[in-house]
Amino acid sequence: MTEKVKTVLELIRLPGMFTAHADILAAFLITGAGFDQLGTLALLLVSTSCLFSAGMALNDYFDMAVDAEERPQRPIPSGRISRTSAGTIGFVLLGVGICTAFFAGIRPFLICLALTCCIMLYNGLFKNLPVVGPLTMASCRYFNFLMGLSVLPFEGWAFIPLITALYIFGVTILSRKETEGGHAVKTVAVCSLCAGCASLVYYCLYLARVLPVFAGVLLMIIFSTCISARILTLLEKNSPADFQHTMKILLLSIILLDAVIASGAIGIVSAFLMLLPLYIPGFLTARLFRVT
User: Fold this and answer.
1) What is the pTM of this model?
2) Which of 30, 151, 187, 198 has its CA 20 to 30 A from that of 239?
3) Is residue 3 one of the residues assigned to a domain?
4) Segment 100-126, tens digit of pLDDT
5) Is there a domain that residue 292 lies in?
6) Cα separation of 3 and 63, whole Å?
7) Does 251 reside within a domain?
8) What is the CATH number of the domain that holds 16?
9) Alpha carbon distance, N-terminus to C-terminus of the chain
10) pLDDT, tens digit, for every residue of 2-51?
């Protein structure tokens, strides 16, 4: 692998791409779509890959000045890739992602446009705003999951992605402390609370028979408890390295969260057999490239 390829893969945060795949695959499984929809699934996986990569590249494009001070090791401030090249990669990938979603169908295409708007708004305008920034990032994950569900919409489908959106809202708030660390009781509490609220939404969807498998509720409670316990460790160990390591765990755990959500519709065994294999490339690439 050449240095240029490594730099591009670092720019697009390759490990995180597998969490975007997990959203689409989990949603596809929940819809109950058959083999005749596998072509659509492939198109959506390509689209989400492009959109996720574009979002990461444009994040660095817009953050060049901040990264020069706080994250000088990133590709642009370190001089390994120019800002113009990073921007070109980001905007080209956005276009490819939109075009691919168009061929997947009118619903995925429209949701893809909404996702694209959220990506641009977050990176270009809202990122540093206290509440609006995390809400916009949560919307990105919401629409990504919804794009997978749009293959075969059913009653209650638009509420399922709220689980991942709540989770990402908390994670995004926590990420604000990633470079500075320090004692952050409110930030840690909000992030932990979001994980608990995600469980509450899951339980409501179970009661509404949208996610009718009760085992999924139990798994969601276990997941939220473990995630909250991990977050709360930052009250004692709160160096920048501690925050960065926790962020890595929380982001890769999106794959596990998606498996838990899917288990509420198709059962534990099927969901985990389909989704947990994504942990393998996610974990291996996270050893080579930064997740955040």
Assistant:
1) 0.95
2) 198
3) no
4) 999 999 999 999 999 999 999 999 999
5) no
6) 22
7) yes
8) 1.10.600
9) 21
10) 888 899 999 999 999 999 999 999 999 999 888 889 999 999 999 999 99
Report the domain count for the chain: 1
- Report d(CA 118, CA 105) in Å as an integer: 20
3-state secondary structure the chain: CCHHHHHHHHHCCHHHHHHHHHHHHHHHHHHCCCHHHHHHHHHHHHHHHHHHHHHHHHHHHHCHHHHHHHCCCCCCCCCCCCHHHHHHHHHHHHHHHHHHHHHHCHHHHHHHHHHHHHHHHHHHHHCCCCCHHHHHHHHHHHHHHHHHHCCCCCCCHHHCCHHHHHHHHHHHHHHCCCCCCCCCHHHHHHHHHHHHHHHHHHHHHHHCCCCCCHHHHHHHHHHHHHHHHHHHHHHCCCCHHHHHHHHHHHHHHHHHHHHHHHHHHHCHHHHHHHHHHHHHHHHHHHCCCCCC
Element (H, E) at 285: helix 279-286
Query: Given the structure tokens 């509450």, which residue do they identify?
Result: 200
- How far apart, in whole angstroms, are the C-alpha atoms of residue 285 and residue 292? 13
Nearest to 231 by CA among 245, 252, 220: 245
- Domain span at 270: 8-286
